[in-house]
């Protein structure tokens, strides 16, 4: 049984295109900028949660007590 038809022949394959964006491509993205935006957003969420958490907890407790009558 011959498997000659399964032989790998690199000359028959087209080269793969380079899919990496050029360094000066405006669509390339700004990874450090996005990291900074993400960290700042997380910081704001933590700060707001620290400030508003007790107030929201109190409001929730009052609402539950008014519904349950306790």
* Major sheet summary line: none
**Mean pLDDT across residues:** 82
Q: What percentage of the residues does DSSP assign to strands (E)?
A: under 5%
Helix-strand topology string: H
Number of helical stretches of at least 4 residues:
1
Name the poorly predicted regions: none
Radius of gyration: 30 Å
Kindly report how far apart the N and C termini lie: 86 Å
Q: Would you tell me the structural class of the helices and strands?
A: mainly alpha
Name the shape in a single word.
elongated
Q: What is the total tally of β strands?
A: 0
Short structural summary:
This protein is mainly α and 70 residues long.
Keywords:
mainly alpha; transmembrane; single chain; 1 helix
Description:
The chain has a domain at 30-70. 54% of the residues lie in helices and 0% in strands. It has one helix at 31-68. The chain is elongated.
Annotate the secondary structure layout.
Layout: H1 31-68
């Amino acid at each position: 049984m011959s498997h000659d038809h399964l032989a790998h022949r690199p000359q028959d394959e087209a080269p793969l295109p380079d899919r990496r964006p050029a360094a000066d491509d405006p669509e390339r993205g700004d990874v450090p900028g996005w990291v900074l935006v993400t960290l700042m957003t997380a910081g704001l969420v933590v700060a707001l949660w620290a400030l508003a958490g007790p107030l929201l907890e109190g409001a929730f407790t009052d609402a539950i007590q008014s519904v349950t009558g306790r």
